[in-house]
Amino acid sequence: MDTCMQVRTPLVAVTILLAMTGAAAAQMKCTVNDPTGTPLNVRSKPNGRIVGTLKNGTPVNAWAIHSVQGKLWARITPPGSEKSRWVFRQYLSCQELYD
């Protein structure tokens, strides 16, 4: 097997696996909508360490939704950041973007 084929095979397998598990999700345009009136905690991973907060009305892009112990978490990119973080999905108001 040539080197090119060896590299492509794992990439194809990963792409198929992501599609089957639902880990790859469409991008959604969201707004922080926390009914408690307090800033929304932004975490390093679902239910992980708090790394910041976002105020109600803050726009974010959501890239994936994951269920952890029955609760939905959204992987987001906060404004002014290139690093993805996690927030509790229930506190986002979202609209799926279509190409």
Would you give an account of this structure?
The protein has 99 residues and is an alpha+beta fold. It has a single domain (25-96), classed as Roll (SH3 type barrels). The chain contains 1 helix and 7 strands. Strand 5 (71-77) and strand 6 form a beta hairpin.
Concise structural overview:
This protein has 99 residues and is of the alpha+beta class. The chain has a single domain, classed as SH3 type barrels (Roll). It is 19% helix and 40% strand.
- The tally of domains stands at 1
How far is the N terminus from the C terminus?
37 Å
- CATH fold annotation: SH3 type barrels
Q: Note the total helix count.
A: 1
The total beta strand count reads 7
Order of helices and strands: HEEEEEEE
* Biggest sheet: strand arrangement: 6-5-4-1-7
User: Strand percentage, roughly?
Assistant: 35-45%
Helix content, binned percent? 10-25%
**Overall mean confidence score, pLDDT:** 78
Structural class assignment: alpha+beta
Question: For the report, how would you describe the main beta sheet?
Answer: 5 strands, antiparallel
Runs in which pLDDT lies below 50 for 5 or more consecutive residues are 2-24
The CATH class designation is Mainly Beta
- Oligomer state equals single chain
Radius of gyration: 16 Å
CATH architecture: Roll
Fourth CATH level, the homologous superfamily: SH3 Domains
